[in-house]
Amino acid sequence: MRKIIQFAKESYAELRKVIWPNREDVISSVKVVLISTAIVAAILGLIDMLLLLGIRAIF
């Protein structure tokens, strides 16, 4: 039981050291993720469409 309590205390101490992002940083990061996800999805969709057209042309 002593080790569990020590682990909890050390974990809490480490969490106190973390520099948490503010609201603006989080919103900015979310925008970057959404935009990059949309770009990658568009590129993969285009590649998929081109491959499908190529396969249909062959067969």
Q: Can you walk through the features of this model?
A:
With 59 residues, the protein is mainly alpha-helical. It is built from 2 helices and no strands. The longest helix is centred in the C-terminal third of the chain and has 36 residues, at 23-58. The radius of gyration is 24 Å and the shape is elongated. The protein starts with a helix and ends with a helix. The model has no long low-confidence stretch (mean pLDDT 96).
In quaternary terms, these chains amount to: single chain
The major β-sheet equals: none
SS-derived structural category? mainly alpha
Strand content: under 5%
Give me the number of helical elements.
2
Instruction: Please give the number of β-strands.
Output: 0
Overall form: elongated
Distance between the termini: 69 Å
Radius of gyration: 24 Å
Distinctive features:
mainly alpha; 2 helices; elongated
